[in-house]
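Replying to the earlier thread about multi-chain prediction with a worked example.

Input:
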Amino acid sequence: MPSDIIRYFRQETLPHIWCPGCGNGIVLRDFAVALEKLNYPRKEVAIVSGIGCSSRAAGYLDFDTVHTTHGRALPFATGIKMANPELKVFVIMGDGDASSIGGNHLIHACRRNIDLTAIIFNNYIYGMTGGQFSPLTPRNKRATTAPYGMIEQSFDICRLAEAAGATYVGRATTYHNQLLTRLIVEGSKNPGFSLVEAVTHCPTSYGRRNDLKTPTDMVRWQKENAVWIEKIRDGSASLKEEQFAIGVLHRHNAPEFTAEYLEVIKRARK
Amino acid sequence: MQGNEACAQGAVDAGVRFFAGYPITPSTEIAEWMARRMPTLGGKFIQMEDEIASIAAIIGASLTGAKSMTATSGPGFSLMQENIGYACMTEVPCLIVNVQRGGPSTGRPTAPAQGDVMQARWGTHGDHPVIALCPWSVQETYSLTVKAVNLAEKFRTPVILLMDEIIAHLREDVKMPDPRKLILEERPRPEGGRESYRPFGGSAGQIPPMADFGMGYQCNFTGLVHNEVGNPSNDPGVTDRLIRRLTGKVESHRKKIIHWEETLMEDAEIAIFSYGCSARSAASALKAARSKGMKVGMIRPTTLWPFPEEAVEAAASREIPILVPEMNLGQMALEVQRVAAGRSKVHLLSRVDGELFTPAEILSALKGGF
Amino acid sequence: MAKVDIDKYPKASLDINIRWCKGCNLCVTICPKGILSLDELGKITVDKPEECIGCGLCEGTCPDFAIKVVKDA
Ligand SMILES: Cc1ncc(C[n+]2csc(CCOP(=O)(O)OP(=O)(O)O)c2C)c(N)n1
Ligand code: SF4
Ligand code: SF4
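Result:
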């Protein structure tokens, strides 16, 4: 890893627990690079995560960190941010964590437009519990609980967040490191709820079952299926089956929740 | 003043500055009061999307150093259980008020009950410490709320205030103490440098200091078994030490935590063991019994957990019978029986129809000699 | 996998933390010069260090933070 970001890690906790070739390490490093670029005073940063392979990321970082309960990272983060709006709060979640058990919290955090930066490690599967489908598993893909193929429709979590009111939404992959870092940086600077979907790969619980035999096959799949949003917008590309857009997918301005509450305090004290 | 208001006022006077909740009868007035008053004090109120989010938010707020609370009733209390365990495991102080109503399930939203006593103790999974207090009047709701906040801070643990619909909606005169004269506890905070700081260290009975987020100590909180620094661990020794220390933290200080009131126990030949709204009827029954010359006494715990074993001792050591009127099918009675260990005959008087005990029915149980 | 304009990069050396390598092979397949491989223990080795162009792709893909590209001054 770049030598200067090692100082952001709790080095006694490394090497991390993830499987060989797991994309979570790549997302974590890109996040650390984003933290370096943002260069906030260390004590002003809080990192919150849920439960799952990806959520273990928080514990490797040498900041104030909370590894919470499955699906509940956002309400924990909401309490932290509201009680101390000075803190820059990042929230790490898996796709199942954020969209299934935590789906209700996700739409409400978007709706409030509270100033949090959510990073969703989307490996399209429940990694930690061994490969059950998540609401983001694409149709026809196989999971231990969809042995004949997934028959449910999947969420596009970026569109979900946009519809629910998030003011900054972007997607990158573990192949597109620099984009991922840039989205996290911009998301953090956005005064409101920002959602960054990091398409990552789980060779152990997803790839093996879905004809992507090696971590390299999985990263190649990302490279081949990611389409820059600018190209879609200017008409030079369109999304074919399995493809997805990457880049800054949405942004708009809206009142931010903790700032609004400070106004409530002023009103109440008059 | 109403019970729910007294609870809210007590919390604020004890220093609570963060409230998160979700509306549910019969606790809603606490949230509504907080929504009005919190911002006037510079505190924060937030209505969350459900009770799971509410308790998560107050734990989050507490991590930044804010004294925080939520209030709910049975269905919401059930939803909170996982994160109550999280607060126990990560030693994050917070107050959870459960205004009990008839259950199970939606039950009788507007009827009182005392059916959540065991849930308060064992509702979340795994071995864990619990402190639960139970008031019987509006005045005591105020003082026990202050105490609950203090205990949470002092012992770095969630504290549950078990109210009931009767006390919550009762209106009584309350003598408010001067809030500036209240003795308030603050969680222990670290003083030394980061290197020597052990946020989850110490031996049994010690309460490790807790740094606020933003103080610069960079702590890790996790519901996984963790070592003294806060890093996850699968080590059997670390696991054993942590789980024992958590419970030991409360158990070794139980004498300082538990409290009960005895009425006319000196010469009593029968004891009533009662708490919360049921104790109000029991107190009237006691008066009536005494006026008829019956030597009845009463033990009224305000701490339900840790169970005040010493309180039962007052009756059990003299081998006098104990009547336990409670609005459930026998929850505290089990604890009383356990402590009495055959020395006293323990008789349960149950009501689960959503109606308060009448003093007459308690009196007749006393007369019946059970 | 990726195309790199060789002349754009200065030469560099790789600082490898072998303890953290889990042998996933990602760096091996991403290196545009094909100078990396896994040894018999399944750990990364640099076969032809002199051919490294310092593009940084291996560092960027290694999920285990095992590679640091040190640009030669
Ligand atoms: C309340 C609760 N239900 C179920 C679980 C078991 N569980 C742990 S992680 C997980 C899913 C993980 O998938 P995801 O959120 O996509 O993260 P990943 O492991 O893939 O990074 C589940 C179901 C749990 N810990 N808590
Ligand atoms: S199971 Fe999948 S997500 Fe979890 S560590 Fe292994 S590769 Fe990564
Ligand atoms: S990418 Fe990293 S972990 Fe994988 S083989 Fe190369 S050095 Fe080892």
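The CA atoms of residues 104 and 148 of chain A lie 28 Å apart.

Feel free to reuse this layout for your own posts.
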